[in-house]
Amino acid sequence: MTADVAVSLSMLVGIVAMSDATRRLLSRALANTGLAVYAMELVSTFQLCCCTHELKLLSEVGGIEPQLALTLTYLAAVVHGFTFNGATGNPSGALEHAYHAKFSGGCALLRIACQFAAAAAARFAVPVIWGIGLSGLHVRHKLLGYRCISPIHVPLLKAAAVELACSFAVQTAITHTRSVEAKYRVHAVAAVIATVVYAGGSLTGAVFNPALAFSTQFPCSGNSFLEYCLVYWLGPLLGMMSSVLLFDKLVPLLSRKSPSLHLPLETKKRT
Fold it and tell me: Alpha-carbon distance 31 to 208, whole Å?
């Protein structure tokens, strides 16, 4: 393991540790105010974005092996799953919870506002940390002006379809593992996340999270703000909605109709 990778891993551990300590502190301080859920969204989304910035730097600038990048993606997803403490860290997830009446529409909008605020904060904070020069990788990236190039390498509609498919796959995994014990569910969802990153990462970066994309992809040159909105906001939102509508509406509807399709011929004639 190179020194740059070791420093980046230490930074990831530090971000998670500080975020977890902050979550615990705020959870106790805001326990009776009704504000704890929004604090959890702020801290957890900040953690997600900061860690993703560092992993993105390792992969795109540090040139680590794809296998190591995917392993770190999987491990990061597992850590986030175990530490988020009820936060979604994803606007699509907040809207899905509001649709299922797990909390109100107003609560969902406030959570989304917190997520984008945390994403913007991470977008500002990470270059400050890199500016300290903890590793050669950070120093080189500072000398380059923290520049990044758009990860969209396919036509825009195809890129939006890739993000839609990634969001659909992850949302479907979340939906179908809700009844599974948490210690297994987190690993199952993390495995799906790593798989879709492997499948779509070379095409769009496979972000499938509007707030995370705002933090990590929108600052990159190569595409306009509206183009990024199409790919990284509309694509994931449609992917989540497609999964929810498919398994909430279409599949139950087909299941109710299917028994009549298997009735014996004589029964059908009598009816």
Answer: 31
